[in-house]
């Protein structure tokens, strides 16, 4: 039961809040990573004991933490201050731009900003202070779902076709190079409602293909994908015997928000599985397209290009994440076989806590809805702001 619950919390990126005593229990049990996280939560909530303990840890480099006198001084200042915020000692006058950029990375910088804003805003009572704190920390139970990223450079092997309400215009966009970004969030709605450690979740993903380097810089294409799904962890026996960690069953609507001949949309129900073998995470997904009303289907042959499912692999090697997605229609007759492959890599951006270098390669069909039936090969580089395996 504990293992199942822990898995669900990891998948949903849930946060653990604990007090000083619980944090020190984990510290004394040498669970240092968890203990320091809990101490930081307690320190942010104003616990002077936690603030002093963290100052001591960073001063002497205890519990596997690198010695950081700036962080140590900051926490000691918190102990002596009425606020849970302090200024970290500045870098030396001859520090480079890279030194300043590196110093800005990490969860400590995020906490510093939150503490500063909290200290600057006055509140007449604790309830108002809690409300302000929630707004500042943006703690509304929203978590990253799929990857969130921005690729300022995404280069295709050929120019993209222009479309209007009557169909293809015969013209092409100016550039093969464009920018691509994706925003993807999930909101857990309930957990363990039926005593199975299941989670019901609403998610939303939006992706934009932006002709940033063309005249007038138009958005060439957009996709909007709301989802509702249930995630169900497996029991311990199945987990240990097979490596099967969880099942997901859901509904997805994907559309590009256009009308006329530019419109693309499809609705799917799907089931997927998450497997783990060491550092390798495997996600096998199958879907069924819900038929559109007769005469209203803008893309009746989309299954011939997108297939009926996909397989994704994610391998974690140190701080690296390597990803591979494979999709195929499994139609090997008369030259109708079509599919796609996507490979990506991410690595912390100057040791950042939640920002990563991101490299992506795509080859095949279905890279966007407007071009679902057109083969595209492209490579992009930029930054991602979240990672996922399921």
CATH level-3 fold name of the largest domain: Outer membrane phospholipase (ompla), Chain C
Main β sheet profile: 12 strands, antiparallel, barrel
Work out the strand percent: 35-45%
Strand order of the largest sheet: 2-5-6-7-8-9-10-11-12-13-14-15
Q: Label the overall shape.
A: globular
Distance between the first and last residues' Cα? 20 Å
The total number of structural domains is: 2
Secondary-structure element order, N to C: HHHHHHHHEEEEEEEHEEEHEEEEE
What's the architecture of the largest domain, going by CATH? Answer: Beta Barrel
- Mean residue pLDDT: 85
The CATH homologous superfamily of the largest domain: Phospholipase A1
Helix content: 25-40%
> Which structural class fits the helix and strand makeup?
alpha+beta
Question: How does this model look, in words?
Answer:
It is a single chain. The longest helix is centred in the N-terminal third of the chain and has 14 residues, at about 105-120. The two termini are about 20 Å apart. The protein has helices at about 1-10, 20-30, 30-45, 50-60, 70-80, 95-105, 105-120, 125-135, 235-240, 305, and strands at about 145, 150-155, 160-165, 165-170, 175-190, 200-210, 220-235, 245-255, 265-275, 280-290, 310-315, 320-330, 340-350, 355-365, 375-385. It is an alpha+beta fold and about 400 residues long. Strand 9 (about 265-275) and strand 10 (about 280-290) form a beta hairpin. A twelve-stranded antiparallel β-barrel has the order 2-5-6-7-8-9-10-11-12-13-14-15. Helix 3 (about 30-45) crosses helix 4.
